[in-house]
Structures are given as structure tokens and as C-alpha cells.
Design brief:
Layout (H helix, E strand, L loop, with lengths): L8 H7 L6 E3 L6 H10 L11 E3 L2 E4 L3 H4 L9 E2 L4 E4 L1 E6 L6 E5 L2 E9 L10 H13 L2 E2 L5 H12 L8 E3 L1 E3 L10 E3 L22 E3 L6 E2 L10 E7 L1 E6 L1
Parallel strand pairs: 1-16, 10-15
Antiparallel strand pairs: 2-3, 3-5, 4-5, 6-16, 7-8, 8-15, 9-15, 10-13, 11-12, 13-14
Length: 245
């Protein structure tokens, strides 16, 4: 967990990604303090990342010197045996009821499926145009996927569409203009690729975009038909509110 912080603007902007939106009732933070709070509660759980839930408190087995290094606004204290932090009652919500909210070990998110945008790609790419579309409509990104549970939930949204002709773009992008390896991919939101559901396919195809196949939930990265893209799914962090218990 983050402690004993020294603020250097350029370094902190690089190492602390501002994607978690955490508000703790009774605290008004900005700047580096807000970033620290977001990092401490990145999993958006009742306790800071790595701490143990014990009834109405959270505990961490460290010595007193280490405990005293945590930022004072976190209300962390030493009880003579371990470090103690308040347990939080966590609620999260999306911008409107048109989004679907889900919670996973890496955080709480809101998802929304949109029909394919209209217009000409021009000098851009299909995935960049779609990612910009997501950002314009939701302030988020084309969805990244980091677990089987998240993949299944997103595919459920696709299969709930009242459409017989499906094909939904997600934010997985090849590092090369042709698919040379299933290892050469990244997510447009900057998160790591530590879960994959890419279907087995030959390499050498021109990369246009990644589609989630409705029937299986697998990710197709070798589509050469631009018309196979009918929908896109956007993902944005939920607004998380924590109330000390």
C-alpha cells in the first residue's frame, strides 16, 4: 500500500494513473492526496488493498514505524499490535440507468453498448474512431476485459441486443498493422493484458479491429470485413462512494 510519499509532479503523473474515482464521505482531497486515496482503494473494497477485514475495522500486520508512514487523512492508527483503518461501506453508481454497473476485483465499472457510428474513417482507424466515440459519449474507452466474469458479462450485453446481425468491437489492438502473434496486443485504456480470450486463428491478416463473437464470447482479431463491426462497447469507471463504518 502507498505510504511515505514524496511529491514530484512529473513522476507522480507518470506512475499513478488517474482512473479510479473514489470519494470518501467526510474527506475533501485534491492533487496528490486524491491520487493516493485512489491508489489505496484501487480495488474499491471495504478495506485498503491487502488489508484484512475484522468486524468493523481493517487491520494490517506491520510494525508501528511502518504504520505511522501512512498519510494522516487515511485515518490509520496503531493499536499496539497492528495497523488499523476504518472499514468502509461502499456504494457505486453510473451516470444513468442506461449503463450496466459491475464490480470486479480490480474495481467497479459502467458499460454501455452503442450502434456503430456513421461516417468515414479517413486517415484514422476503425478502433481509434470507436475509442473517440466512446470518450465523447461516456468519457471512457472501448472496453478492456480482465477476467472471464467480465467477458461473460459483456457478452451478455451483446446477446441482449434486439438484433440478429451482431459483432461488437472491444478495445484490444494489435501493435502491428498485420496480426503476427497473439502476444502483440494492448488495451486502448492503457491497462495490462493479463486475461485473453483470443480465438485460435492464423496470423498474417491485416488488423482492423477486435470483435467479440456473440455465440462464444471469443475475440476475433483477424476480420477483414469492415462491415462485421455493428456495435461497440464502452467502459468507464463507476463513481465510488465510501462511508466509514
Amino acid at each position: 500500500m502507498v505510504r511515505s510519499v514524496t511529491f514530484e509532479s512529473n513522476q507522480c503523473q507518470y506512475y499513478l494513473k488517474k482512473f479510479t474515482n473514489v470519494t470518501v464521505v467526510g474527506r475533501s482531497l485534491d492533487g496528490i492526496d486524491a491520487l493516493i486515496q485512489n491508489a489505496v482503494y484501487a480495488s474499491q473494497s471495504a478495506c485498503p488493498n491487502g488489508w484484512t477485514v475484522e468486524n468493523s475495522i481493517c487491520t494490517l500486520n506491520v510494525d508501528e514505524t511502518t504504520c505511522n508512514e501512512y498519510a494522516s487523512f487515511l485515518n490509520i492508527t496503531w493499536d499496539g499490535t497492528s495497523c488499523v483503518a476504518p472499514k468502509m461501506n461502499v456504494t457505486y453508481k453510473c451516470a444513468s440507468s442506461s449503463y450496466t454497473a459491475r464490480n470486479y476485483p480490480d474495481g467497479s465499472y459502467c458499460y454501455r453498448v452503442f450502434p456503430r457510428w456513421s461516417g468515414v474513417v479517413g486517415n484514422s482507424t476503425y478502433y481509434d474512431m470507436s475509442n473517440t466515440y466512446c470518450n465523447t459519449l461516456t468519457k471512457g474507452y472501448l472496453a478492456s476485459i480482465h477476467s472471464e466474469a467480465e467477458n461473460n458479462d459483456i457478452n451478455t450485453l451483446q446477446n441482449a441486443l434486439n438484433a440478429t446481425d451482431k459483432g461488437m468491437m472491444i478495445g484490444l489492438v494489435s501493435t502491428t498493422s498485420t496480426v503476427t502473434s497473439t502476444d502483440n496486443f494492448y488495451w486502448l485504456d492503457g491497462t495490462g493484458v493479463y486475461y485473453s480470450n483470443i480465438e485460435a486463428a492464423g496470423t498474417g491478416s491485416q488488423f482492423l479491429f477486435t470483435l467479440m463473437t456473440a455465440s462464444t464470447g471469443k475475440w476475433s482479431t483477424t476480420s477483414t470485413d469492415q462491415n462485421s463491426f455493428k456495435y461497440l462497447v464502452c467502459k468507464v469507471s463507476a463513481k465510488v462512494t465510501m462511508t466509514p463504518m
